[in-house]
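Example A, followed by Example B.
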Amino acid sequence: MTTSVQQGFQLSPYWVDGLGVPSFDWKKYQDKIDIMPESLYNVLISDNAPALIESIIQNYSLSLVQGSDIARVARDVVLADVYIGDMPSEISKRLGIDQNTGREIANQIVSQIFTPAIEDIKKMQAAKFPNRVAQRQAIPTQQPTAPRPIPGADLPETGGNIIDLRNQK
C-alpha cells in the first residue's frame, strides 16, 4: 500500500481505526453504521474528509497521529459517541492543543465535512444527548433590544401635551 493511500485511510473518519488496531470492535461499529442515515455514512466515507484533515495538519503543523485523532473525533460525533458541543474541547484534549485552535478545527470540520448531513447529525445528537440538547436550547439568546424612545419624538409638531414651565410664576 502506498504511503498516500495509507495516509488517506489514517485520516478517514470511516477507516481511521480499521487498519491494524486490534482493540477496535468492527462488529459494534458496523452495527451503528447499519442503522444510521445514508447521509451520515456518506460523511464518514467522503473523500473530502481526509483531504480537509490533511489540510488542517499542514495549516496547524500537526502530526499524522494528531490527524488520525481529528478523524476519530469527527467519526465519534457522527456516530453520536461524542456530543458535538464538546468537539472543540475533545479536539484540544486529544491533540494537546489550546482551546481556540480546537474550536477553529472543529468549526472547519462542521462547515466543510458535516454540512451535507447536519440535520441528521442534529437528530442523532438529540436522540443520544437529549439533556444536553435541551439544555442548550434553554439557554436564552440575547435578544436585540428595541431602541430607546426619544422623549417627545412621538408628539405632534404642535407640542402635544408639553407644558412650558419657564414662564410660570
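Example B, a separate protein, is given below in the same form.
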Amino acid sequence: MGSQSVRAVLVVLVPALAWGCGNSANPPVSSISIPDVPDLSLQGVAFARLSEGQVVARGTAARLDYRRGGGRLVASGATAVVQPTPGSSLAALGTLRFVAQDAKGEVPNRRGSASGGVRFDAARGDTAVTERVEYDGDVLRGNAPVAAHGPGYRVNGNGLFARVDGSAIQLTSGVEGQLQMEGPR
C-alpha cells in the first residue's frame, strides 16, 4: 500500500518536473534590485590611525562594511578615541571619545554622518549628546537637539555647528542653559 502511494505521487511529480525543466520560457524577473554588496564586511573591528609613528586615533565597530568605489563605509556600534594635536584648539579638552550607533561616510571626500545616540566625551569633563550629526570637510553640523555640559556650564540647543579643529563650537536655534561662576579663591 505504501508503494502505491509513492507511485501515485511520482506519477504527478515527474511530469510536472519534466515540464518545468523543459520549459524554455524565462520566468518573470522580480523588480526588486540586488542590494549594494560591500567589497569588505567585518565584525568586531578595531582600528588605529598613525601620524609620524604615534597613534592619533583608535576605535572599534561592531560591524563595518566598506565599498572601494567611492571609499564608502557603513559602521554600526562605532566608537573612536582621538588624541588632539598638542597646541591645537582642542588640546585643552584632552583625549576625545565619540560614540554612535550608526556611522556612514565617504573617506576620500571627507564626508559622513553619525546617528543613534551620538555622544562626545572629553577628558576635561565635557559631554555632548545629540541624535544626529553630519561631517563635511572641516565642519560638523546638526539640526537635532543637543545637550552639553562640562566644567562650569550646562546648555541645550536645537542644533550644532563646529569646526573640527575646535576653533568654533556653537549650539544653535534656541540655546538655553546655565553658567556656573567660580567661587572666590
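On Example B: Helices lie at 2-22.
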